[in-house]
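Reopening this one. Same input as before:
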Amino acid sequence: MRVLLAVPPGIDKLELYKVLGLKAPPLGLAWIAAVLETAGHKVRVIDSPTEGVDLKTFINEVESWSPDVVGITSITPTIYKAYDAAKAIKEYDKDLPVIMGGPHVTFMYEEALSNGVDVVVRGEGEYTTLELVSTMEKAGLDAERLRSIRGLAFRRGGEIVRTPDRPPIRNLDELPPPARHLLPMDKYTLFGKPIKIIHAMASRGCPYGCSYCSTSYFWGRMIRYRSAEAVADEIEDAVNKYKTNIVVFTDDEFTLGKRFVYDFLREIRERGLDISFSCGSRVDTIDRDMMAKLKEHGCTALYFGVESGSQDTINRVGKNITLEQANRVFQWAKEINIDHVGSFIIGFPWETIDDMKNTVRFAMKLNPTYAQLTVATPYPGTPLYYQAVNENLIEDWNWEHYTTLRAVMRGYRFTREQAQRMLQWAYVKFYSRPKFLIHELIHGRLGTIITAVRNSLVPWFNEKLLGRSSE
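Same output, byte for byte:
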């Protein structure tokens, strides 16, 4: 089978991409492509925003390459562009099967099946897609055959069929390395500037189930690690092939598996791999020794989800950390002199304006290298989403606005507009501190930071300049 996998065209114009000027490799598609190639299928990947492919050009590419099936990936803020691509494919050839995967359609599959999509791949996609493509090769979109495949949703006449969930892949080492050779590896950017970078994932899943995050509901509550040897093999090959030593781990909980961390550090030391990497951590899964060892072996930045300056809010969202742990770990980071990013979320339904201000003040007290400041966003599939729907809190149903930089819901004691203004206040408050500005100026990063913060405030400034609300 000839399988065309695509990041939908047009998403580079969205607010989500304009803020950071970020064009990152679609690791999920590359992994699915690798599994399909290993099984003997012919695969092409079109990373539309990175390759500058618009919708018309995309359809021309579909016509010229003549795939047997097209697969499209999407997240919530890019879903309309994904639907546009699916509908355009159907206008070109109504019989060309279109499949779609990703976090949004995993939970909103009925919506997807009403927008040009034939089959939704729910959850972890590699083996579901492989089984689907292999079945289609023999029987097309025969509904009875599709019923036997776990992890799908599709229409059968007027009925929507949702097959049982597919169990998570227990042994991730079974997967071949992502098919990076199908990606435009020399065209990725950060803050709009070209950057050669390797994105890698050492684990999947999260055991915590925070109410605002879809990770544990998409990948599962059981965290699964690849072997340190397999991860090091992949990175060593990619570093040599693409001539870069910058690695970004996309795991939510890289440091949860201490045995993996120390095994991985040993692997890169014994191989003499001179890499600079960043990873996500938690303030309750890292100790001072691990942090120091990570830096010693090339870790340049750690990402921590603190989320709130209120212990009550932390408890309510299921984060299972303490403010004391955050204080201690951020102090270690300063002593060890490793860059560290803190994530902070304001605007949970039960919060007050004072609660939001206290979160920003706590962020300033922790004083991370950078703060990621966002507004609570009810992503489909999360407990926060179901709460917001049940309590009629969502006021903005435009999925393109679900970027965490726009308030889309009200709270019990604040309006959506107040939450939006608080987010702008938070950015200005944190990033306008003279000490911070001087530090960034000394390190030659001030221009980049000003650009990022300015872009984060773009929606608000546009609304003020146009004299209208964000509705």
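So the earlier flakiness isn't reproducible anymore. For the record, The mean pLDDT is 92.
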